[in-house]
Amino acid sequence: MADSSWSYETTLVAKPVSAPKARAFVCRHLIEHGAAYLVDPVRLVVSELATNAIVHARTSFTVTLSSTDRTVTLAVREESPARRVPAQVQRTDLSGRGRRIVQLISSDWGVVATGPGSHTVWASFDLRQHQVH
After folding, report:
1. Are 32 and 26 in contact (CB under 8 A)?
2. What is the pTM of this model?
3. Are 121 and 111 in contact (CB under 8 A)?
4. Which parts of 15-133 fold into alpha helices (H)?
5. Considering the chain, what percentage of its residues have pLDDT values greater than 90?
6. Would you say 57 and 78 are in contact if contact means Cβ atoms under 8 Å apart?
7. How far apart are CA 113 and CA 119, in angstroms?
8. Contact 49/98 with Cβ under 8 angstroms?
9. According to the 3-state scheme, what is the secondary structure of 3-41?
């Protein structure tokens, strides 16, 4: 990667059109910084988190994509007046698997309260280390 540290942020409205905008946002910046190999996993995770914000919080949400020397971090901050409790997902359920997908695809993830009525779900992804020839 050419730049070792960078950060981008966008705020999107709680409408279905925002999920593809969030995917395009992360794709553009990952490719720009030479991390195209992370496009598929990060795009899937941002899709899950954006859809969750659209369906459950029903307010604008902010997507942040940042990088350090070893990690790309995706964060989705949403304003939600009610704290949601994850439900037990049954095999026949058509939704509710987002957190499990995030857990399986990312290197690490978590949820942080960022103020009264808001929280951020974040996921990190390991960068490949360049070999010096």
Report:
1. no
2. 0.82
3. yes
4. 18-32, 39-52, 98-105
5. 59
6. yes
7. 4
8. yes
9. CCCEEEEEEECCCCCHHHHHHHHHHHHHHHCCCHHHHHH
